[in-house]
Each structure stands twice: as structure tokens, then as C-alpha cells.
């Protein structure tokens, strides 16, 4: 039987002075141990979902459940939740708070009031695991975007969360830094951490995810394995979401010949370069 870490039950959320709800009765369950992806157009509610998941926002109605227990919004409970549910923002600048890399990684541990010896040991381990040892005393504002992304992940993983949430983690990264990031996420998942990533890179999602959630207008409209989700072509068209190239190719291999595959490749390339 599938175990779920985090569950949303009929959750509504509306920003102050906004006319419309951002989330409309959202019901969504994150399966333990999976590499999950969250996709949808801008404005569909992905970032709000993450902020609610981490306890930074509180729903106006509905329930959010962590490991079978509804969230409690007192200070102590929220601190415990944020140890278990780590959130990586799209822009690492929103997350980096200290002067140097070492200080930044230790910040969350210091807030927990852990003994100095444990803080030092955990920070040293994180520096090694995320390839940041040589950058330990580097001023954060002197680092590249790829390095800042690594530090922001180390900041969260040093707290040893059970669920890692990433909002557009590959945004603004080149191919090399994207590969490095995905290698890091593979290692994190291999250590037992469940991952949920929001991304517009559907080719990456198709290759990486075990399970895909599709949101639209604050609701969950579809979920399943990548092959199942991207087979729903009519719905994907209605939501203006593209079909990953590799999925198109694999589907065509089962149905037609080499000439048809080449035509699909040409069409995909043409679509990618429209407007240039």
C-alpha cells in the first residue's frame, strides 16, 4: 500500500485583495520515496502550493496533512515541519542570508539550538557532500548562480528533510550546471529523500520523474506516471503544455516508420526556434 508524506485535502487559498482564488479545493498527495514533478502554466498555483506545504502560508479552508497528522500552526510545530519539509526557491538570492557559505549553511542549525559540535560536524559534512569545501569562506555575493543554487540546496539538506521541494531549480542554469544539479538530486533521492520539483522543462521531467502532477487554475487536473500523463494529448493541448520530444519519438516508434519520426523531429526543432 502506497504511503503518503504530504496531503492536501480540498485546500483553498486567496491572496489579500485578490479577486480570485489561487487554489480551488486542491486535493493532492505526495507519495513517499518518489521523484515527483509538478507542471502547469504560470499562475496555476505551483509556488503557492509550495509555500503552503512548508507552512509559510496557511490555507483559508481545507486540510494539509503531514505523515497522517493535520498541520498545527504554532511556532514549535512549524519549526519541526520546516526541518522535515525543505523548500528551495527558484531564485537562490531569496534563501541566502549570511556572509559566507559556511555561515549560511549553519544558519538553520543555529536556529534549532543544536550543540556547537553537532553544528560543526553537519556543516562540514554538507560542504563535502555538495562540493563546497573550497568555497566555505567565500562571500556568498561573489558566487556564480550555479554555486548559489548548490549552497541553497546544502542549506536545506543540512537539516536532513524527508521531503525536498524545488521551485524551478534549473531556471537560469546552463546545461553544465543543470547536469550537475540533477546529479546532486539523484544523490539526495538515493539517500532516501522524497523530491517534488516544479519545472517548465518537460523533457527533463519526462526523463527524471516517477510521478507527475498537472495543475491548472489552482486545481489538480491529472496525475500519473510520465508516460500516462503525456499520452493525454488533448488535455495537454488544452492546457498549452508541450509533449516531450522523447515521448513523441518513443510513441512513434511503436506506431509508424522512420520517415514519420524524422518529420516529428523537424516539427519539434521548428517549434523551438519560432520567434528567433
SSE topology string: EEEHEEHEHHHEHEHEEHHHH
- The CATH superfamily appears as P-loop containing nucleotide triphosphate hydrolases
CATH architecture: 3-Layer(aba) Sandwich
Which fold does the CATH topology refer to? Rossmann fold
CATH C-level: Alpha Beta
Counting helices, strands and paired strands, the structural category is alpha/beta
- Number of helical segments with 4 or more residues: 11
Mean of all residue-level pLDDT scores: 90
Query: End-to-end span in angstroms?
Result: 50 Å
Domains, number: 1
DSSP summary, beta strand count: 10
Q: Report the uncertain regions.
A: none
Written description of the protein model:
- With about 280 residues, the chain is α/β, with parallel strands linked by helices.
- The chain has a single domain, classed as Rossmann fold (3-Layer(aba) Sandwich), CATH 3.40.50.
- Helices cover about 40% and strands about 20% of the residues.
- The chain contains eleven helices and ten strands.
- It has helices at about 45-55, 75-85, 100-110, 115-130, 145-155, 175-190, 200-210, 225-230, 235-240, 245-255, 260-270; strands at about 5-15, 25-30, 35-40, 60-65, 70, 85-90, 165, 195-200, 210-215, 220-225.
- It starts with a strand and ends with a helix.
Could you write a compact summary of the structure shown?
With 276 residues, the protein is of the alpha/beta class. It is 42% helix and 21% strand. The mean pLDDT is 90.
Amino acid at each position: 500500500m502506497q504511503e503518503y508524506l504530504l496531503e492536501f485535502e480540498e485546500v483553498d487559498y486567496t491572496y489579500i485583495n485578490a479577486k480570485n482564488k489561487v487554489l480551488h479545493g486542491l486535493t493532492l498527495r505526495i507519495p513517499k520515496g518518489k521523484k515527483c514533478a509538478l507542471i502547469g502554466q504560470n499562475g496555476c498555483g505551483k509556488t503557492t502550493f509550495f509555500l503552503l506545504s512548508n507552512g509559510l502560508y496557511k490555507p483559508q479552508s481545507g486540510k494539509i496533512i503531514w505523515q497522517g497528522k493535520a498541520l498545527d500552526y504554532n511556532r514549535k510545530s512549524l519549526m519541526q515541519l520546516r526541518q522535515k519539509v525543505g523548500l528551495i526557491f527558484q531564485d537562490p538570492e531569496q534563501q541566502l542570508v549570511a556572509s559566507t557559505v559556511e555561515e549560511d549553511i549553519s544558519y538553520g542549525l543555529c536556529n534549532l539550538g543544536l550543540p556547537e559540535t553537532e553544528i560543526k560536524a553537519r556543516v562540514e559534512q554538507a560542504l563535502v557532500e555538495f562540493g563546497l569545501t573550497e568555497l566555505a569562506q567565500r562571500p556568498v555575493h561573489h558566487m556564480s548562480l550555479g554555486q548559489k543554487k548548490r549552497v541553497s540546496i546544502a542549506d536545506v539538506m543540512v537539516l536532513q528533510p524527508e521531503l525536498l521541494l524545488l521551485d524551478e531549480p534549473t531556471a537560469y542554469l546552463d546545461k553544465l550546471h543543470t547536469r550537475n544539479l540533477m546529479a546532486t538530486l539523484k544523490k539526495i533521492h538515493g539517500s532516501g529523500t522524497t523530491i517534488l520539483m516544479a519545472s517548465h522543462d518537460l523533457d527533463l521531467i519526462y526523463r527524471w520523474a516517477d510521478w507527475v502532477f498537472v495543475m491548472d487554475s489552482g486545481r489538480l487536473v491529472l496525475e500519473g506516471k510520465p508516460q500516462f500523463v503525456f499520452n493525454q494529448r488533448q488535455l495537454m493541448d488544452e492546457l498549452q503544455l508541450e509533449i516531450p520530444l522523447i515521448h513523441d519519438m518513443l510513441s512513434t516508434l511503436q506506431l509508424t516508420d522512420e520517415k514519420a519520426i524524422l518529420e516529428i523531429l523537424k516539427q519539434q526543432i521548428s517549434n523551438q526556434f519560432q520567434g528567433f
